[in-house]
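# nightly structure sweep
# worker-07 picked up a monomer target from the shared queue
# config: single-sequence mode, recycle default, output format = structure tokens
# input follows
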Amino acid sequence: MILRENFERREHEMYRSCATFSDETKGRDREEEKCDLRTDFQRDRDRIIHSKSFRRLKHKTQVFLAPGGDHYRTRLTHTLEVSQIARTIARALMLNEDLTEAIALGHDLGHTPFGHAGERALREYSAKNFEHNVQSVRVVEKLEKNGRGLNLTWEVRDGIFNHKTSGKPSTLEGCIVRMSDKIAYVNHDIDDGIRAGILSEDILPKHITDFLGHSTRDRINNLIHGIIRNSLDKNIVDFSEEYRQALSELRSFMFANLYTNPVAKSEEAKAERIIGMLFNEYMEHEELLPEEYRRYILEGEEKETVVCDYIAGMTDNYAIETANELFLPKFWSRI
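# output follows
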């Protein structure tokens, strides 16, 4: 018995007609034999979870660079929170939960060390329009598996590429992840900001907290309910205008009070300099790159792109250790 076919039939029985069905996927770049146990979207989810780039997310900055505590979010915990929120919404709206989960787990695979500071630095030093969503797609299409990529379905890659605010996902499941990302980071960044002593509940805009709630838990819960109420029995997934405006104002508050806060971001200038130094060093001395990356250059990839690939894949710790190795003198020893 091929259990996958049972799961595919069950999708058509459970999900609404506007859902994305795994047996109707636009497919993969390279054809593969179907799995007997899992649908294509379940298989994509598992490939992402088992990838090296997914594991590295645990040592990449979310907001606070090298935070002095174990309870601050990292890029991995952010990803897991997005996945949880997105799956809740997909289940309530009777859309494809497996596709939603795969997109959510893969959406930040291309993020740089040091969060958005690293992204800005690569954009500045490389003169390329480096964007982490584009890099996430490059990771799953090219960089994983020593150049073979993960060979994910078109729908998962589309959702990963379009998860940013400016994105336009082609599936409703991709739309869910795009909004879940904002719900997650705005609210958990408030929580981390309060933990760091930079924010407090009483300085958040009162008209927003009166509407969305006076705790991280309540705000996430109300935003999830807001999407579900506004999207039930419709071929869209979106907030009502009232909820969209509230989240937008809260996000603007966070940019003004946390994301550009000189205390929270005090180390970012150093992080950006590290990225710049690494970039220039690898551009001048490509022999310092690992063999698999030098191979990409030999195969015709632009060196600037490959150097960005290598640096973007680093964790915060590895970038710092590499900079120490390359730029700081070592004490001489006879041993």
